[in-house]
Structure formats: structure tokens, C-alpha cells
Write a structure and sequence with these properties.
Blueprint (H helix, E strand, L loop, with lengths): L1 H16 L4 H9 L1 H14 L7 H15 L2 H13 L4 H7 L7 H15 L4 H12 L1 H23 L7 H9 L12
């Protein structure tokens, strides 16, 4: 019964986002309890802790981009726009266009975490001072969420390259990045 419910949830997610969740199906088939735990983890990974939406989504998108999984990056961008993040935020997180101070700081955090940068403690301190402790936790979760699914998919042999989704996202921005392809 739980397996059937999980499969229906996956079906619904796939239809809503036009996203291949084969890796989730594989987990549910292999171990229903693990599939259930993955669904619970998904709820945590989308909790923003009250962080500003633009910052939360910028950090998540930048992190997903750094993980180099086109479908996950496309999903992060779609979910950001669905949640009210504007196109300029999405493009700035991808390194195209101007980032306001909020988005720039979130991108700096994502890059710092992904690189284990020497100045990461300074960036985290700036995040805490600007947004507060609770929101700082939300931005840390956003960075982790951007990496979580691409790494899971890659470990299961199901990750794809990033460039096709970048081409599609940039197509509407006026930048010429080549022909449209899908991820």
C-alpha cells in the first residue's frame, strides 16, 4: 500500500514538472522504507527556514549548476519561478546577468560551500548578519538540496550533463548560446 502511494506521488511529480524520476522509482522498488524516507527528506530539502525566496532559490540553483546535472538544474529553476523567484534571479544564479546584493551573497555561499573556500566562514557570518540564524540554516539547506539529487542520481548512474538546460534557460534571456536542446 505504501509502495503504491509512493508511486502515485512520483507519477504526479513527473507530470507536474515533466521530469524523469526513474531513480526515485528504482529506490521505491528496491526498498519501500528507503523510498518513504527519501520522500520525507524531500520535505526537509525544500524548507527555506524563512530565508528570502530570491536568496534561497539562487543558492539552490547555483549549487545544482555546480553539481552538473541538467534535469536537476532545470527542475530547480522551474520550482524557483513557481515559488515567485524572478527570471533575473535564475539567470544571475547561473552566472548570466546582474545579481542584486541578496542573490550575490547567496551565490557566494553556494560557491564557497561547493569549493570549501577559505573565506567561507566570512561568507556565513555575512549571511547570518544580513538574514539571521534561521535563514542562514535555510540557505545551507538550499546548497545541500542543489547537490543532493544530482549526487544521488550520479551514484545510481542516472545523471546528465548540464549544458542542454543552460541553453534552454538562456534562450529567453536574449543571449545566443546555441541551438535549443533538452536535458
Amino acid at each position: 500500500m505504501i509502495k503504491a502511494l509512493l508511486r502515485r506521488l512520483i507519477d504526479s511529480f513527473e507530470r507536474k514538472y515533466d521530469y524523469d524520476s526513474g531513480y526515485m522509482r528504482e529506490i521505491v522498488t528496491a526498498d519501500t522504507a528507503a523510498g518513504f524516507k527519501l520522500m520525507l527528506a524531500s520535505q526537509f530539502l525544500t524548507h527555506d527556514f524563512g530565508a528570502p525566496k530570491q536568496a534561497y532559490h539562487a543558492a539552490k540553483i547555483r549549487s545544482a549548476m555546480r553539481a552538473d546535472c541538467g534535469p536537476c538544474l532545470g527542475l530547480a529553476a522551474a520550482m524557483a519561478q513557481e515559488d515567485g523567484a524572478d527570471r533575473d534571479t535564475v539567470l544571475a544564479a547561473l552566472g548570466h546577468g546582474e545579481a542584486d546584493a541578496t542573490v550575490a551573497l547567496a551565490v557566494r555561499l553556494a560557491d564557497g560551500v561547493c569549493d570549501n573556500a577559505v573565506d567561507l566562514p566570512e561568507t556565513v557570518a555575512k549571511i547570518r548578519a544580513r538574514f539571521g540564524e534561521r535563514a542562514a540554516a535555510g540557505l545551507a539547506v538550499a546548497v545541500m538540496a542543489g547537490q543532493f539529487y544530482p549526487l544521488l542520481k550520479r551514484g545510481m548512474g542516472q545523471a546528465a550533463a548540464c549544458e542542454p538546460v543552460l541553453t534552454r534557460l538562456l534562450a529567453g534571456s536574449g543571449e545566443d548560446r546555441g541551438s535549443k536542446t533538452t536535458g
